[in-house]
Design a protein that fits this description.
about 200 residues; 5-stranded mixed β-sheet; 5 helices; globular; disordered N terminus
Length: about 200
């Protein structure tokens, strides 16, 4: 997968400023997870509609400041969704206060993973119950056994004890509690900061 921008970008992003001014540097890339109603036909169109409904002046940056985020740029990531490899163009925003860039990630996705959150939860729930996740792979044939092994390994290493300590079940709605307690989407492994943003209008 081509890494064309935050949160994968390793070099600073220099934004245009007034003539003679020093360039603003967005060196630290973080994420903002936007609550998105799960749907079977998630697409670029649905994501764009969600982005159009966001009022950024209501959003709070990871630095704690409000009303300081501006839209700039995009990057592309791929998602294995309903047997289709969806190429999603993700919106980036920039904080004029702390000079940090953010990727606006819909809550149905897991950062740094091509397998959607719901599919990961179903796989984990079945395996933890001693059942075969075969029907999940049949419903999304882009997910293979290697994906399943990786998901199980990461869950057992990073998330099983977290769920137990927070008294959460795998098939619960985990986005809000995991972001609130751990500042990560469920099954997010990398420690990139991730903040919840619920002030959206997706009607």
């Amino acid at each position: 997968m081509k890494k064309t921008g935050p949160p994968y970008q390793s070099r600073p992003v220099f934004l245009p400023t007034a003539p003679g001014a020093m360039p603003l540097c967005a060196a630290n890339n973080t994420m903002i997870t936007v609550i998105f109603k799960e749907c079977n036909d998630f697409s670029q169109k649905e994501y764009d509609r969600m982005m159009d409904g966001i009022q950024l002046h209501q959003a709070v940056c990871t630095c704690g400041k409000k009303g300081c985020l501006i839209r700039y740029g995009h990057y592309t990531r791929c998602v294995k969704l309903n047997c289709v490899l969806v190429r999603l163009t993700v919106q980036r925003v920039y904080c004029t206060e702390c000079r940090t860039s953010h990727a606006l990630i819909p809550s149905i996705l897991v950062p740094y993973s091509q397998v959607p959150l719901h599919d990961q939860q179903q796989i984990l729930d079945l395996v933890e119950k001693g059942q075969d996740p075969e029907h999940v792979l049949e419903n999304n044939n882009l997910i293979d056994e290697n994906n399943v092994k990786y998901i199980l390994r990461q869950f057992r290493k990073h998330w099983r004890q977290r769920l137990l300590s927070a008294a959460l079940n795998i098939m619960d709605s985990l986005t809000v509690p995991c972001l609130s307690i751990y500042s990560r989407q469920f099954m997010q492994v990398r420690r990139t900061r991730n903040k919840l943003f619920t002030c959206t209008n997706t009607a």
